Amino acid sequence: MQNIVRYFSISTLALLLFMGCEVSDFDLQENPNYLTPDSADPEYMLNEVQYLFQHYMKWMIVNTDDVMRYEAMTDTYGDVVPTSVMDGDTSKEWDTYYEALNNVRTIEALAEDDETLLFHSGVAKLLMGYMTVTMVDYLGAIPYSQAVNNAEFPNPELDGGAELYQTVLGDIDEAITEIQEANFDFSTDLFYQSDKDKWIAFANSLKLRMLVQARLASTDIGIADIQAEINALSSQNLIDSAEEDFQWSYSTVQEPESRHLYFQRAYVSGFDQYIGNYFMYQLKESKNNPDPRIRYYLYRQSNEDPFSGPPYLPCQGDPDVDYCYIGDQYWGYDHGESRVGRGDNLLRTVYGVYPGGGSFDEDQFVGAPSTTDNLGGAGILPLLTSSYVSFLRAEAALTLGTNGDPATLLETGIRNSMSKVMAFGGVTSDLQPTAADVDAYVGEVMQDYSNATTDEERLDIVMKEYYLAAYGNSIESYNFYRRTGYPSDMQVPIDDDNPVFPRSFPLSRLEVQRNLSLEQKNNYDKVFWDTNPDSFIK
């Protein structure tokens, strides 16, 4: 790539890393600070990769929070995920990805001649692999094999998505071997504190996730018997407890900004987004037993009824709106509602204590920027958790006939999510849900599952619970919605009954301008594993 990243000198990098810096304005045109194996410090570089990784993942999550109805999409799909060459822009994510790729390749080169760096190399491969499959899942084909080598490849060409999946699957196997053989730790491991078993559980779980993701096109990634591959993984060390969950933890530090992005958006100056009414309805009204996670997920700033006086909801009385207001002071917007700016930033519902580090809803009804009863932004990115692994295994069992009872895996996924959310933040309140509340909710879901008459109906139920558990990580729901079409009752934009759902994201606008090998793509172009019809989802 011609203009991918600005690399810092080692002394500057060390200072910024330990301060948790933001990474921006990357420029690499004959930069004398370009790090090579002869000049690099692998400890600093891998620390930087961890920070780049979390920046990249949080931005990709925010990219699809509104598309997936967790937040309200107050525009059209074409505006949220642009289709034109000039509008398309994933430049920030793109540059961050390629800076990380250069660092990882340098670490791997160093490890070839230094066995003390095997752990570094294994961890670097896994983080890079997760970022690479996310790039493929969102964008499709990307430059990879020729990337970050400007001297030889000034205009690096695209590598196909299926080919990159094959590459990452191989890298995961190499990473597992390196971690198992490593005799030296990575001293600033911000995920697992150099716990080999946990890293291997993550590696196997990431591989499982990729195989389920590509199950509709498994032969494209060179797997003739995907059932056997997944069965083999199911007997391996997988993420199956909260202690093994792969997540990034934020802090309350403001300078440099180290708080969860949800907290920054809702608790600092007034929430300028809207929680999606579809999502709130699923938590509050879709079952006889409300979701026990609702007070952890959502925080209500006001006890005013928006139908009782100004500022009135503009959707009130509109027959084309599905929800408008779901009651009990849960203020949000429907999917595709464009009548925004009603001056209720301190009245609408915002993010709660999980996962963004805000407030647990105890009926305080205090504007989020004013409340001091919160975690100060010390939230998490729930990237690959035990509940997600259970839902993935349930999907594989239903669609591929792999090992494991899908009903048991469904219940395990729900309960693992409930336990994780309800244990978060040290909440103590009379309004916390009880074990009986959880049992009632789980019992209702399992009764619905038992009453289902087809595997498609059962899969719909599994994906609905996956969707609710994946709050804070819309990467997961964006992927499985395109893969399965479920949940089947996803709200369609209220002003368009037949929208073109974005099946992928545009390439970096800046990179298309500077890399002569690239052409901008359309947001209706499908990634390699998405073999479903064009109008499959809305």
From TrEMBL:
Residues making up the signal peptide according to the UniProt record: none
Organism ancestry: Bacteria, Pseudomonadati, Bacteroidota, Flavobacteriia, Flavobacteriales
Pfam families for the chain: SusD-like, SusD-like_2
InterPro entries: SusD-like (IPR024302), SusD-like_2 (IPR041662), TPR-like_helical_dom_sf (IPR011990)
Entry keyword set: Lipoprotein
Keyword hit for Transmembrane helix: no
Protein name as catalogued: SusD/RagB family nutrient-binding outer membrane lipoprotein
